[in-house]
Specification:
The complex is a heterodimer of chains A (about 325) and B (about 150).
Chain A: H1 2-21, E1 29-33, H2 35-40, E2 44-49, E3 52-57, H3 59-65, H4 67-82, E4 87-88, H5 90-100, E5 107-108, E6 115-116, H6 120-128, E7 132-143, E8 146-157, E9 163-170, H7 179-208, E10 210-218, E11 229-230, E12 233-234, H8 235-245, E13 253-257, E14 261-269, H9 281-296, E15 300-305, E16 309-314
Parallel strand pairs in A: 1-4, 1-7, 10-16
Antiparallel strand pairs in A: 2-3, 5-6, 7-8, 8-9, 10-14, 11-12, 13-14, 15-16
Chain B: H1 2-21, E1 33-37, E2 42-51, H2 54-72, E3 76-77, H3 92-95, H4 97-103, E4 114-124, E5 131-140, H5 141-151
Parallel strand pairs in B: 1-3
Antiparallel strand pairs in B: 1-2, 2-5, 4-5
The chains are: A alpha+beta (about 325), B alpha+beta (about 150).
Chain lengths: ~325, ~150
């Protein structure tokens, strides 16, 4: 302990001015058990998604029934926090959702009752507001009287679900019984490399914007469609022009454009707004909603799925 | 000025103390090495163990040494005293799992067959709070062999 304090003081003396002048922002992370771990250990739940039964991880039951899981998540949180990564807590996020559940299980239009269903995972992502999800898998091996652990970490972008970092390792066989100690032994040699991958991805978000998806739809009740003329131009083109003006380096891809539907993919929105608040798909597409109202008196409704997908439905609120 | 110099020297001396505890040597394998056969049924070995405290690390080194002698053999160190495993064959542990679970408990019987002669180093794994101890042990190989014969 004394040695750590002394080393810390020495480093501070040498790097003090640099430290004060600014550090790169780090992504917020949330550690969750992987789907593989949950399935292997019997923590899955069924969810009806637009008529189909889907199996998803039951994080709440896993946290309630597995002491090893809580210890493992705490250990990874501790290792990441020591390296300066802000954390979001899975348990707290789940409790927040429970409080909100009665109010908004299914999102509907205020006027005509259309719906866009979110999975429990989408809701959790919105509540937690973490940049990156770290999915954790571990397997315990018995090697004679000793145990070893193989640990796998996957870093997923919370907005796109794309894997942006990965690491795995196996601890040396040990008499240690505690899972956190074995996990630490298994991952320590690879953790800095894993964190470097996370930071590289986050630095890219700063430079090139965060990737989201925007969909445009039209209510049946709307008098017109995306080919209707406003200010001498088709509505669809005007929307596309707005997306062009409001993306980082004008980066986006129009994958679908019909009279009733447009889909913009790989849209790069700024990671923070002008007030330095973290932006998500909803907040960003609100700009388009306001533009359509102010310029053309067109009402619209925003529906979101998770953090990285927004649907703007034109015609009514 | 003299006061600043004095505090500076004290600071550096304390820091020097921290350096000598040291990081784990790059050639560390964690495996037990035979240092010599004492020709009285005992062997001298160098073993490694890790733990959150120094006593834990020493205790782990003792367990590792006994486990290596029983199941892996001791194949590193002095060529003249390398040891085959006392419990050879696959699933040697599993066949007597109940016995060995008790045997290797913290206050278990494994202690009867090892004696710490000296601790030759404590190290830290980079980024971890664990200590790694390098320990010189005297092992009662004959006694351990007799104990295992009773299992068969």
């Amino acid at each position: 302990m004394v040695c750590r304090v002394l080393w810390g003081l020495l480093l501070l003396l040498l790097q003090g001015p640099l430290y004060v002048s600014g550090q790169a922002k780090k992504p917020t992370i949330m550690v969750v058990p992987s789907d593989v771990w949950c399935n292997t250990n019997g923590f899955m739940q069924s969810f009806e998604n637009q008529g189909k039964i889907q199996k998803i991880s039951d994080y709440k039951r896993a946290l309630q029934e597995s002491a090893d899981l809580i210890a493992a998540i705490s250990k990874i949180n501790e290792l990441m926090a020591e390296r300066g990564f802000p954390l979001k807590n899975l348990e707290s996020a789940l409790k927040s959702i429970e409080q909100e559940e009665a109010e908004s299980a299914v999102l509907t239009s205020g006027t005509s009752g259309a719906e866009l269903q979110e999975t429990p995972l989408d809701k959790l992502k919105k509540v937690a507001q973490a940049d990156i999800w770290i999915q954790l898998t571990w397997t315990v091996h018995q090697v004679g009287p000793k145990r070893s652990v193989t640990i796998n970490l996957q870093g997923l972008d919370a907005y796109t679900d794309k894997q942006i970092a990965g690491s795995s390792g196996t601890s040396e066989p040990s008499f240690t019984a505690e899972i956190p100690v074995l996990l630490e032994e298994g991952i320590l040699a690879h953790l800095d490399n894993f964190n470097a991958q996370l930071q590289t991805h986050f630095d890219d978000l700063f430079a090139n914007g965060r990737e989201i998806q925007l969909r445009i739809r039209v209510w049946n009740s709307f008098d017109g469609d995306l080919e209707s003329i406003y200010a001498d131009e088709e509505l669809g083109i005007l929307i596309e022009d707005w997306v062009y003006d409001n993306t980082v380096e004008h980066r986006f891809s129009t994958s679908t454009a019909t009279e009733t539907t447009m889909v913009f993919e790989q849209v790069r929105m700024p990671i923070y707004d002008e007030r330095n608040r973290a932006t998500d798909a909803r907040r960003w597409s609100r700009g388009l909603q306001q533009y359509l109202m102010e310029k053309f008196q067109i009402q619209s409704k925003i529906l979101t799925k998770g953090l990285g997908q927004a649907t703007l439905i034109i015609g009514e609120k | 000025m003299k006061k600043v110099n004095l505090w500076g020297w004290i600071f550096l001396l304390l820091l020097g103390g921290c350096i000598s505890q040291g990081r784990l040597p790059s050639n560390h394998t964690g495996q037990t090495e035979c240092l010599g056969d004492l020709f009285d049924g005992h062997i001298r070995v160098r073993a490694w163990g890790a733990g959150l405290t120094k006593p834990d690390a020493i205790q782990m080194a003792q367990k590792n040494a006994v486990s290596d002698l029983l199941f892996e053999g001791i194949r590193r160190g002095n060529p003249g005293c390398q040891q085959p495993p006392l419990m050879p064959g696959p699933n040697a542990y599993e066949r007597h799992a109940a016995f060995f679970e008790h045997f290797f408990k913290d206050a278990g019987d494994y202690k009867k067959f090892t004696q710490v002669e000296k601790v030759t180093g404590f190290y830290r794994i980079a980024g971890s709070r664990q200590f790694v101890a390098r320990v010189q042990l005297r092992m009662d190989k004959r006694g351990l062999h007799r104990e295992m014969e009773r299992l068969k």
